[in-house]
Amino acid sequence: MSLITLLEYASVLVFAITGALVASRAQLDLVGFAFIACLTALGGGTLRDLLLDRNPIFWIANPTHLAVGVTAAMVVFFTAHLLESRYRALLWLDSVALAVAVAAGTGVAISLDQSAVVVVLMGMITGCMGGLMRDVVVGEVPLVLQQGELYVTAAFAGAATAVIIRSILGDDALALFAGACMTWILRAGSLYFGWHLPVYKSRPPRV
């Protein structure tokens, strides 16, 4: 199994769990769990593959990804009540999923010999779009857009780090690992220490 395939499986699994946790907070049925879990797990990678004209799309080429998402949803459906704070678990699992997905998306774009700009964008899309779709569908404010959160910024920094490390050292595996670490450190710092970007605050017009 290649590194990129391994990263895609890990991304699908962890993002599917976050989707199922969101479904539990929305009190959906078993089918709703499976739908939200798979939308979260596969959404970002699907959009990436469509933009890159990667045919067939990764989960159509290997439906095991879909099976992983559904299985994760089933497990969470019967165990979510055991978590003391599902929202806290969701935030931290999502941070891990973001880091892995950014690395996976970056790796896919690199394997297709895309330019540095496209590689960074594909890493960001893979990491961010599944969670964005998840939150929009269930009617929650997307984590991607919450005030001052380092989310898209973390994805950008992680993908850019991978590109820079690869250009310097020429080692794809090390570059993707460094990118994943950078993404997670920034996202975890935002959650734990409150790191954030400046937020626009409106001021009354001058008289």
UniProtKB/TrEMBL annotation:
InterPro entries: Gly_transporter (IPR005115). Coiled coil: none annotated. It is a multi-pass membrane protein. The keyword Membrane applies. It holds the Pfam family Gly_transporter. It is found in: Cell membrane. The lineage of its organism: Bacteria, Pseudomonadati, Pseudomonadota, Alphaproteobacteria, Rhodobacterales. GO terms for cellular component: plasma membrane. This is Uncharacterized membrane protein YeiH.
